[in-house]
Amino acid sequence: MSLQEIISFLTNEEKRKNLILKLQHEGEDSKQIHAFRDIIVSLNLHKPPPGIQQKTILQNTFRYSDPRECFDNFRLVCKPWQDAVETIRFNKCLHIPTICKHVHNGNFSEFYVKYFRAFKKVAITFTPYMLQNWNTLSPIILNNMKKLNFIGFHTEQHLPENFNNFVYQLLQNSQLTLKILRFSGTIIFELPLICLPNVERIGFHVSKHHGHQIEKFDRFMKNSLANCEDMSQFWVYNIDDCVQIRKYIGENYPEHCTDTNSNITSHYLPMKASFCSPLSDMVHFKYPSKIEILYIRIKNLNLPFTDGWEKYQEMFALIPNLKHVVMTTKSGIEIEEALNDISQENQRIWKQRISFLTSCGIHFVNFKEFNAKVEKSFHTNKWGFRFICK
User: Fold this and answer.
1) Other C-beta atoms within 10 Å of 344: how many?
2) Distance between CA 267 and CA 286 in Å, rounded?
3) Distance between CA 166 and CA 151 in Å, rounded?
4) How many CB atoms lie within 10 A of CB 76?
5) pLDDT band at 53 (very low <50, low <70, confident <90, very high)
6) Model pTM greater than 0.85?
7) What is the phi/psi pair of residue 259, to 5°?
8) Among candidates 269, 263, 368, 340, which has minimal Cα distance to 308?
9) Would you kindly state where each structural domain of the chain is located, as residue ranges?
10) Do 346 and 245 contact (CB within 8 A), yes or no?
């Protein structure tokens, strides 16, 4: 019997069904079953495919799954799967308060100890319930959450007694891997001095409660800059919620005010990359000569002589160092595309303005080019503030 004839018993459905029936008829201990079993074993067909238990393949697959599902379900399939799950590192954030409910009688099960180790990011919010279980949580966090790339702190009304030591040890555990730090909440705390050579970005959420904490913010800024010498961007959220913080930054770090998406922030700080809408607001900007990159939002292209555009040459004369500009409609459509939807007369007016501004040395760019120019500007003074507002 040829090889092709033998294979036909596996590929031909009628022959395959007949083969199965005959094997079932021969019985468990028949010589035919033993011979068939020997063939299967000799070809290693009784073992699962290599990939199904190969750790690297499993972990690359699990990274696209929910971490909790991996621990609750996939980990229980078999020992290789258990090992793959318990040694994986998810590039996802563990929000500590969501784990607090699993503290029983002041203790965590071994399950959660292993679960903590699986994450590369952690967000710690000091809720009352978390403070109540702090003596249980803090050693588990410090002993199991290491080599993180992101750490976030959210402070409320109180901090635990050993907080400074805790922060120092947590940062030390990820000293060479940490890339992003984020701070939010009502309390500004003094960041311990520790070299964090790979931190690229710090985020700070301004609160209306920070107005009386300027001295704390001053120490926070100085320690942050001392710790993160290679940081390029310092993101400040909702700076207009606290006039005192905004004033402090304007007085102490004017050369580092790099980018904002806020009209109000642009009014008060010497921004390098600014936002303006409507154009008539430019007369209220305190430092228009500092602007090199500008994003202008036009409310209505069909009304070309409103919102300051009726005297646009005077408005742009206030910005002598402007190099690049992107203009969009209120809905975010770039002007080059938006011009196709207005009358020919209005098209002529806007094109004439663009031509004039271009002749003044101002380059019109699209959003992608605009963002690239902004990113590049952060490195002019080594690092810069990005002010992000609602």
Assistant:
1) 8
2) 6
3) 13
4) 10
5) low
6) no
7) -145, 145
8) 263
9) 3-42, 257-385
10) no
Radius of gyration, CA atoms only, the chain: 31
According to DSSP, residue 319 is labeled -
Q: Are 255 and 249 in contact (CB under 8 A)?
A: no
DSSP per-residue letters across 184-211: EES---PPPP---TT--EEEEE--GGGG
The residue written with tokens 């069909």 in the block is 302
DSSP class of 235: E
pLDDT band at residue 102 under the 50/70/90 scheme? low
pLDDT at 329 (0 to 100): 94
- Which residues have a Cβ under 8 Å from the Cβ of 85 and sit 6 or more positions away? 62, 70, 71, 74, 75, 118
Mean pLDDT of 90-94: 94
DSSP secondary structure letter of residue 48: P
Written as one letter, the residue type at 24 is Q
Quick one: which of 266, 354, 270 has its CA closest to 309? Answer: 354
Nearest to 318 by CA among 350, 285, 351, 296: 285
Tokens read off for 73: 């379900």
Q: 216: part of which helix (H) or strand (E)?
A: helix 214-227
Query: Six-digit token pair at 172?
Result: 């030390």
pLDDT per position as a tens digit, 149-196: 999 999 987 888 889 999 999 999 999 999 999 999 999 998 999 999
Q: Which residues contact 249 (CB under 8 A, 6 or more apart)?
A: 236, 239, 257, 269, 385
Alpha-carbon gap, residue 225 to 383, rounded angstroms:
10
At position 221, the amino acid (one-letter code) is M
- Kindly report, residue by residue over 298-339, the tens digit of the pLDDT: 999 999 999 999 999 999 999 999 999 999 999 999 999 999
